[in-house]
Amino acid sequence: MKMKRITYKLFLITSLILIAFAGLIYLTLYFFLPTFYEKYKTDQLQTGIVEMIDKSKDLPIQNALPLFDEYAQKNNAMIYLHNNEGIIIYASFLSFIQGTVQSTPNGIFDISEPLRNTNDLPNSFDVTMPIRFQDANLTLVVSATYQPINEATQVLALFLPYISIIVVIIGIGSAYLYSRFITRPLIYINRGAQKMANLDFSEKIEVRSNDEMGELSNSLNDLSLNLQQSMLDLQDANQKLKSDMEKEREVEKKRRDFFAIVAHELKTPLTVMKGHLEGMMYNIGPYKDRDTYLQKNFQTVQDMEQLVREIIGISKLEQHTFKLQLEEVNLAELIDTITKNLGFFASQKDIQMIKQIGSHLSVYTDRFLLEKAFKNIIHNAIMYSPHGEKVYIEATQNSKLHHIQIRVINTGVKINEEDIQHIFKPFYRIEKSRNRNTGGSGLGLFIVKQIFEALFITYSMNNTEQGVEFLVTIPLSIK
Q1: How far apart are CA 205 and CA 216, in angstroms?
Q2: Is residue 291's pLDDT more than 60?
Q3: Which of 59, 177, 270, 314 is deepest in the core (most CB within 10 A)?
Q4: Mutual orientation of helices 331-341 and 367-383 as an angle, nearest 10°?
Q5: Of 99, 104, 71, 68, which Cα lies nearest the Cα of 86?
Q6: Taking the chain, what is the end-to-end CA distance rounded to the nearest angstrom?
Q7: How many CA atoms lie within 13 A of 261 on its CB side?
């Protein structure tokens, strides 16, 4: 019902306007038509009299009579011509005065009595004027009645009920059809707009018209498309924001876990050092041998210093202000430098390092970070390989894919699949006792992970038939 309220309003207003307009026309005809007709008739009669008088002065009476006949017939008037003695020379309608006109012996009519009677006619036009002919000077008498218009007014009043019924039927019918025609597209557009308000964009509003209705439907369709696109963009933005928030929460959780582990890693050696120092201060038992425990404490401080340096390095990588120092790096020279620095550790375990790297292979990256990452990888391969095994370092270039792959394989060892899934987490160690004599702090591979992510390098660790393979894929350049 609400949807058609505008139809009913428009129908009612249009009906009232049509009925009021019809009534106004009727009242105008009823009250003003007689006055207008009387003035029009008077002007017409007077103009005709002036023309007859003007034409008659050049004609004899007998030749001028057709002018009077034509005037009387045209204007439904009575015309008389009489001389100074009141004798009628001419009468347009003798029947009008039949019984009152007296005939004289010479055949001329006596009009004295009828002239007095014509002046007494109600609502009539009466004019008496002198008129001159070539052969005589006479008096012109013109009399016309306004009775037809009065009768028409009375008939109009009697016909009013029938006119009213016709006007009401035609007005209401026209108003209904007009209101339905005008409001149909409005109701259709309103339904479409309500669907848009309910975020339903499945249908378009199609009004085939070149007027404002068509423009309104096109504007609503454009609004629908823009709103739909804005909602999709908003959903994407919300999804991205949600994803970013989840990532931020995950990063924050990892950061809290990391610092909790750091606190634990620092607390343990500090507690040991504190115990050593108290024992030496109070000369308790074996702590009397101060040189031995000073040496142990010094080694502990060095380990803590190394741990702090590693933590500082990780912190720098996570800062937004950190910038890569990009340059061209020759991989053969880089690996040679690393293996020379780690040669002492390899010789202690009689481990042979075998390199297969072309001298022409180079990448555009941060040399310092790449060297640190590969140093940790190769050092781990040496430290976790059994005595007398081999460490292979191979590099191959794929020109089509624009990257270089480097494999570091240490033989004679396997890693549990469960450990491989967690090995890149901070402070994670395969050896659960966390004895520094059998392993480092557990930050080595975590630092590798942080560096490779900063350099857009992909990496993986897998068990092979030979041993453990660390696969690194380096893009030829960082864009």
Answers
A1: 9
A2: yes
A3: 314
A4: 50
A5: 104
A6: 65
A7: 16
173: nearest Cα among 6, 4, 24, 19:
19
Residues paired with residue 411 on neighbouring β-strands, in sequence order: 467
What percent of the chain stands above pLDDT 70?
Answer: 76
For residue 6, give the amino acid letter: I
Handedness of CA 167, 171, 172, 174 (dihedral sign): positive
For residue 408, the cross-strand partners are 393, 470
Structure tokens at 12: 């009612």
Q: Return all residues near 335 (Cβ < 8 A) that are at least 6 apart.
A: 355, 357, 374, 393, 395
Single out the residue of 438, 261, 472 nearest to residue 363, CA to CA. 472
> What are the tokens at 447?
């630092």
Residue with tokens 């028409």: 152
CA separation for the pair 473, 217 (Å, rounded): 57
CA distance 135 to 193: 92
pLDDT at 439: 52
Dihedral of alpha carbons 218, 222, 228, 231, sign:
negative
Give the span between the Cα atoms of 140 and 129, in whole angstroms: 5
pLDDT at 234 over 80: yes
- Residue 166: what residue type? I
Place of tokens 């591979």: 445
For the record, the structure tokens of 87 come out as: 């004798």
pLDDT in tens, 274-284: 888 888 888 88
C-alpha distances in Å from residue 311, one per residue of 153, 260, 307, 441, 451? 113, 13, 6, 11, 13
User: Cα–Cα distances in Å, from 131 out to 54, 71, 93, 136, 142?
Assistant: 9, 15, 19, 9, 12
Q: 49-83 pLDDT, tens per residue? A: 898 888 888 889 888 888 888 888 888 888 888 88
Specify the length of the chain in residues.
479
pLDDT at 471: 94
